[in-house]
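A reminder from the course coordinator: this example appears on the midterm review sheet, so study it carefully.

Given structure:
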């Protein structure tokens, strides 16, 4: 009995030991498999990795100057600029032409798309584009360079004085029924952006006149597109012969596609003439002169304008006046070179007259060639 009982006790122990040995063998096999997998992964080349996954998370505008994606100082690459970088760019474009400067700013924004100064740069590019493509067709203020060299270039009226100090040559004619004729030839030289002098010859209602004078812009703002000018002209009338002084003040403003301007002053002659035969009184003649002009840019090459012209005086109990309205077209021929030309054609008609009737209507033509 004793051996049988001992066998019964030993048998479970043998079974347990065998099971433990099998478990240990299984564990050893798992460990070898894991080690082999690790070796395989460590031996893989990075060239076998998927390119899309390898580039994921890298900034498109980062500069890879070496193997370290964070750069030499360990900072993450950026697509924004700094005040020093922007200042250096401003210095580099100072001497560039408008088209070259536009391309330079485009390249800058490609390199720094998140520029702190992006809004300012875009506004600068818009101004350059307007200046570049509007210069040859419709006069527009320039945007580059010193503010003192920028011009507003208000449209030239037919019957009013030029109020924008410029270097230019003007030639024109007016033919009115039944027998009125006027020829104009004038040269103006700009001494400073706000100051010019001129001289020429023309036929006014009082006769042929040799004229010269000065223009000074007391207010000249390219930012607001506004101009206020003082005009002082002296003239020598030939038939009858007398001297006269024509002081005037003119103001103008440019909107997006519309130019408006007005001027008013006097033509003070230094002669004496009979005012009324009944009283046989005499005094120097004072005429009021002035008018307005509105010009609309209908297209890049053509503008439409309307203007009014005032000629009036009061002598004793008599009021003399000859007022007109004029309509016409303005063209901007492409003449090339450094100058720019504009040509005006129009027709006028009297609208308010009393005692004066110089003509019953007229046709006019005018050309202005700007040299600045």
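Designed residues:
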């Amino acid at each position: 009995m004793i051996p049988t009982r001992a066998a019964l006790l030993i048998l479970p122990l043998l079974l347990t030991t065998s099971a433990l040995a099998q478990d240990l063998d299984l564990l050893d096999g798992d460990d070898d498999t894991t080690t082999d997998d690790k070796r395989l992964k460590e031996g893989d080349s990075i060239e076998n990795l998927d390119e899309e996954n390898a580039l994921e998370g890298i900034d498109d505008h980062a500069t890879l100057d070496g193997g370290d994606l964070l750069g030499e100082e360990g900072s993450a690459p950026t697509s924004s600029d700094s005040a020093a970088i922007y200042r250096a760019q401003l210095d580099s474009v100072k001497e560039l032409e408008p088209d070259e400067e536009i391309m330079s700013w485009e390249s800058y924004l490609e390199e720094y798309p998140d520029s702190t100064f992006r809004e300012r740069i875009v506004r600068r590019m818009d101004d350059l584009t307007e200046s570049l493509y509007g210069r040859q067709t419709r006069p527009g203020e320039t945007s580059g360079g010193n503010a003192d060299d920028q011009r507003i270039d208000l449209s030239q009226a037919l019957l009013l004085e030029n109020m924008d100090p410029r270097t230019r040559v003007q030639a024109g004619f007016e033919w009115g029924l039944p027998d009125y004729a006027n020829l104009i030839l004038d040269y103006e030289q700009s001494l400073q952006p706000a100051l010019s002098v001129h001289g020429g010859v023309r036929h006014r209602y009082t006769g042929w006149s040799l004229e010269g004078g000065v223009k000074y812009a007391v207010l000249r703002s390219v930012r607001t597109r506004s101009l206020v000018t003082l005009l002082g002209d002296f003239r020598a009338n030939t038939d009858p012969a007398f001297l006269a002084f024509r002081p005037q003040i003119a103001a103008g403003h440019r909107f997006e596609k519309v130019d408006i301007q007005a001027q008013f002053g006097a033509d003070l002659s230094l002669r004496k003439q009979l005012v009324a035969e009944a009283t046989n009184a005499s005094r120097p003649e004072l005429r009021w002169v002035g008018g307005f002009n509105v010009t609309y840019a209908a297209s890049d090459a053509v503008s439409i304008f309307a203007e009014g012209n005032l000629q009036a005086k009061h002598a004793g109990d008599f009021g003399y006046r000859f007022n007109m309205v004029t309509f016409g077209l303005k063209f901007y021929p492409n003449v090339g070179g450094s100058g720019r030309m504009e040509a005006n054609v129009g027709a006028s008609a009297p609208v308010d007259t009393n005692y004066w009737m110089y003509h019953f209507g007229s046709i006019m033509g005018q050309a202005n060639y700007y040299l600045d």
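The chain has two domains: 83-134, 152-370. The mean pLDDT is 77.
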